[in-house]
Amino acid sequence: MKNRAQKARQTLIIENIYPFFAIASFHSFYARDCQSEIQRLRKRTKGKRLSKKARFEIVELVGEVRTSSIIAVVFAVTALEHAIYRYALRRLSHEFFVKHLDRLSLVAKWLVIPKLVTGKAPEESGSAISSLRELIATRNELVHAKARVGDFVSIRAATKMINRSRQQEPTVAKCAANAPKVVERVVRLLEDLDPCEDVGKIVHDTLQQ
């Protein structure tokens, strides 16, 4: 009886559930709403000189789109990191995850961990994993942006950095718009590969709005 109680204590899992997906979804939809408003303002003033008020509104909305797009992308990736960690925690163990899996890339975790548990892995070239790669690449571009360090930065170099940032914005906005769908598609791979109560709970918790 004592050994059984000790074993129960060892397998007790206490988890924190964070609203990463809800944050990503909110900012994804908000960024799209802001983009629609920008298009509406530009269409309304087409062929006319923009008023000072309209210019100010557009500049403000462009900033909102950029900020919310970044938040959506970063939190979508965080939701998927948390989901695969919870899956490994419940279907393998915390110790095994930390010792053997923690240092894998996020894509590798989504391929390897289900394979270890079920003997089946998501299709590496499938649309869900491909979308995951794109989402992670965009996140990495945002959070690991390289800076130029030196005593002097030429106007040409500064202009190049600004233009690169501007060119990046449509990619970030597109990725942010798709982020909630990517999270849902990737998380639901677990239901296809390992349909059980634990997985159902992870999927439900991850996709809570």
The number of distinct helices, counting runs of at least 4 residues, comes to 8
Low-confidence sequence ranges: 1-10
Query: How many strands, which pairing sense, and closed or not: the largest β-sheet?
Result: none
Quickly give the structural class: mainly alpha
Q: Care to count the β-strands?
A: 0
Radius of gyration: 22 Å
Could you characterize the architecture of this molecule?
With 209 residues, the protein is mostly helical. The chain has one domain. Helices cover 78% and strands 0% of the residues. The chain contains eight helices and no strands. It has helices at 2-11, 20-44, 52-91, 94-101, 106-118, 127-143, 155-193, 197-206. Helix 2 (20-44) packs antiparallel against helix 3 and helix 6 (127-143) runs antiparallel to helix 7 (155-193). The longest helix has 40 residues, at 52-91. The radius of gyration is 22 Å and the shape is elongated. Mean pLDDT is 85; it is low at 1-10.
